[in-house]
Structure formats: structure tokens, C-alpha cells
Amino acid sequence: MIITAVAVGTRGDVNPLAELGEEMIRRGHEFRILTSEAFRPLIESKGVTFIKLDTDADHVMKYLVTDYKTSLDFAKGMFRLKKENPKFMEQTLNAIKGSDLVMYGTCAAFARHAAEYFNIPCARLFFSPMDPTRQYSLYCDEYDSDKVLKSYDGLPQGMSLMTMIALNGWRRSVGLPKWNISSRYTEMNGREVLTFYPTSRVLMPPDSAWGDHIHVTGYWYHPEEAACDYKEPNELAGFLRLGEKPIFVAFGKAESPELARLQVLTLEALKRTGIRAIVQAFQIPEKDRINTDKIYFINVVPYPYIFDKVRAVVHHGGNTTNGMGLRAGLPTLVIALALDQYFYGRMDHRIGCGPEPLYIRKKLCSTDEIARALKDLTSGRYDAKAQEISRKIREENGVVTAAESIEKYVLEIGNG
Q: Which residues constitute the domain of residue 261?
């Protein structure tokens, strides 16, 4: 079996696919990923075939994360990426030709149309809820109600409208019928499309109404592998020995004046509270990155390694980072940039693993708000629950569940 995945996004979008690819190769299949050049080393380190898509990974981060405030901003970002690579459909067609299955996520939905051209079945991949449910939503802070379900209204039409604007010209040029407002990504050739959520059922319990083509599998990663080759700096080892266990604060590599200000405010809050911390904040000026007995600044570090050394974690709330922290049993404070991150922050709080998230798209939080949240995070009230959730997450085996589902789905299609 040949599977080709198309990924437009950050490392958090690509890494799970590389992990799945490694598992599929172990089972005797071929797995390929079409994505930005920046992710070639990651993909090839797993033995997976890399295919280049002319997309700038830094621009994806800027257009779809840093600049993202509304759904309109997201649409604008997607069109900017499309304009930067006018040959993206040609590259996608070349990459998927001969495949038995094409996988894609939200930002790579164009792959579905290339697959339709070759009549190749598809699998959708999402890191936050896209299929309607009463249980939870990106677009509503409530749970288990008709209001939550209603918040999904308009989502399919919005996706179809973007598709009509961006791809109907291409569809006409290759002889495919026009995509219209009632067209749906959830079906293809009269069959429900295989759909994956590579997150934990603890955070996203599947809806029984979804059907057996939708799978919340557990995370797609092997954290221990990412930590085994890391050489701990002597200075870091000394910091860890000096006092009480620190927290880890990680803000990723997204850049903007707003995020730079957030990092400064967080540093002020840490100093005010006196909480020991290892800090990964790339927008703090080098001259201000002064290590003390309370704060240690670090650059690139494998998260599975550092999560094993700390008592709690603060981050933006991306699916993979959030899952790694919970798997390590760490109370978590999410300071979110975008809807999916805010969703995971809310779910962390709902299951008792951390304070209510701070959402800087609504309002940049103050030093006082951050300090209060940090004190709450380290109060001990979330420790037992975080350990309980860790045990549940470790019982899941997401890559195996996904691989078995793919094999079954493609076999069923082949048998008609």
C-alpha cells in the first residue's frame, strides 16, 4: 500500500504524520509526505519519504498562527500561501499519483481535489474538533448543549466557499465539476471519508453519533525516542540540582510584537512570584537572558526530555505539546494564540489538569493575571489529577490504532 500525506503547517502538523509513516513502513507499506523543505530532516529521520512542496514554513507560522485573529484572517493567510506557490496543485498531483490513500489536514484540503482527479480515496486529519457534536467546540465556551452543536453551523459552507474561490478554476481546467456551496469534504464517491483526530480521548471523547469512520486515536508520537540522544548542558544540570523543581515555560518560535510583549510580561510575573523556571522565550533580547538561581534560559531542547525534569508547564496549547505535557503528568497553563490552542487550554482546565487558559487574542494578559495563574498552577491542586490523566494517556496507542484503521479502510474500498 502507498500512502501520501500532504501537510501545510508547523512542526506540530508534520511530526505526527512522520510518526504514523514510521509505523506504516514497519507494517510493510510505503509512506510519503509532501510538505515544506524545513521538515525534510524530521521526516527522513523516521525513514519516511520526503517530497518537497514549495511552501515557506515560516510564512505558514506567520499567516496562520501569528497573524490569525478571525476566520477571515485564516482565509487571507491561505490565499497568500496559494499565491506564493502557483504550482501547488501540479506538485500535489505529481506527489500523490499512484497512491492508494491520500491524507490531508485543514490547511491542505486542496489535496482532496487532486485525489478526486485520480479517483484516490482520502483520509482527513484534524488536531481539533471539526465534526459537529454537542459535547465541545472551538467556537463555544460551553459544553454538552444544543448551543455547542449550533456553533458548528456554517463551517461546511465556509470551507466550500473558500474552495469555490480558490479551486474552481483549477477544477474546470482538468475537467472536474464545479465545487458548490453544498459540496462536502466528509463524503467522496458516496462513501464517508476516513477521519482522524490524533489526540487523546480524555480531551476529545468521541461522539457516538459520528459513526465508525471517525477515530479519536490517541497521540501519534513516541516521546522517549525524541529524548534519548539529548546531551544535557552542564549549566542546566547544575540549575536543576540547586533548588526546588522548576516549571518549564515555552512560547515556541512564532514572532510578533504582541508575543514579544507577552514574553516580557511572563518574565516579570516569574520574578514577582519567585517560582523557579526554565524559560524558552526566543523574543526576549539576548542581553536580558540572564540566568539566575531562579530562572534558566534555554534554546532548543526536546520537550520529552525537559518535561521529565519539571513540575509543571506553560505553553501556547498546541495539540502535540499539550499532549506530551499531560502524558508526562504535568499540570498545564495554556496561554493561547488561536482557537485550537484555547480549546485545549479549556479542556485541560475542565479535566482538572490546570488553571483556566489565558487567551491573548481576546486581550493581552497582564503581569498580575499571569502571576495569579502561575501561583495557581504550582499550588499543588492539579498534581494528582495530572498524574491520573497521564496514566490514561499512556494506555492509548495512537499510531497503531490509526495504522489498523487505514489498513481496514483501504481493504474495504478494494473489496468494493
A: 224-394
In sign, the C-alpha dihedral spanning 51, 39, 28, 409 is: negative
CATH number at residue 96: 3.40.50.2000
CB 319 within 8 A of CB 199: yes
**Measured on CA atoms in the order 43, 49, 55, 60, is the torsion positive or negative?**
negative
Answer yes or no: do 55 and 159 share one domain.
Answer: yes
The sign of the torsion formed by the CA atoms of 132, 410, 8, 127 equals: positive
* pLDDT tens-digit map of 226-274: 667 788 889 999 999 988 999 999 987 777 788 889 999 999 999 999 9
Start-to-end Cα distance in the chain = 17
- Per-residue exposure over 309-320, b if at least 16 CB sit within 10 Å of its own CB, e if not: bbbbbbbbbbbb
Same domain flag for 41 and 161? yes
Q: How far apart are CA 315 and CA 273, in angstroms?
A: 18
Q: Are residues 240 and 129 in the same domain?
A: no
Q: Considering the entire predicted model, what is its pTM?
A: 0.91
